[in-house]
Amino acid sequence: MFSCARHATTLNTTTTKPWRRRREKRLDGIKSRSKRGDLELLPGDPSFLLHVSCEMGLGIRADFMKEMSKHIAETLSKPETYVCVCVHDDVSMTWGGKEEPCALGTLKSIGGINLENNKKVMEKLCEILERDFMIPKNRVYVEFVDMERENCGYDGATFGG
């Protein structure tokens, strides 16, 4: 057994681990892109979280998530490899005191959140929810959040530094 202090003196602090160099190089690239104002290319966003009161079923839920992932990527001009979609179905919810089908969601992104894009996402979401799950569009709320870089974490750091 050794103490932390004794162990620390035996470490070679001048050698950087290969994984740390790769991570630092990648984060430097992210920082340089974001300084150019190219926020749409940052990884780790956007994220879409949706709670629905009905049960979707595994296969249908997976299809829904894939369809929304593709649509969000196209609408916000982001690579789909960075889009994260999370759906919680069969959630106990009331809307106006009634337990009828409804949905509540949040779309967060660094850049790309604006009136035009928000409308496109809402139209597509409501179309799918009404078509496949009988959730009327007047029972769907989505909060759109344009995140600041320092308020978004990815890979052990934030995009703000």
Automatic annotation (TrEMBL):
Q: Name one GO molecular function term.
A: dopachrome isomerase activity
Q: Which domain of life is it from?
A: Eukaryota
Q: Which Gene3D superfamilies match?
A: Macrophage Migration Inhibitory Factor (3.30.429.10)
The protein's annotated catalytic reaction(s) are:
L-dopachrome = 5,6-dihydroxyindole-2-carboxylate; 3-phenylpyruvate = enol-phenylpyruvate
**UniProt cross-references to Pfam families, sorted A to Z:** MIF (PF01187)
Keywords, A to Z, come to: Cytokine, Isomerase, Secreted
Location in or out of the cell: Secreted
Q: Which residues cross the membrane?
A: none
Query: What EC identifiers does the entry list?
Result: 5.3.2.1, 5.3.3.12
**Which GO cellular component terms are attached?**
extracellular space
Q: Which PANTHER family match?
A: D-DOPACHROME DECARBOXYLASE, MACROPHAGE MIGRATION INHIBITORY FACTOR
- Record's family? Belongs to the MIF family.
This chain belongs to which protein, by name?
L-dopachrome isomerase
Q: Which organism is it from?
A: Bathycoccus prasinos
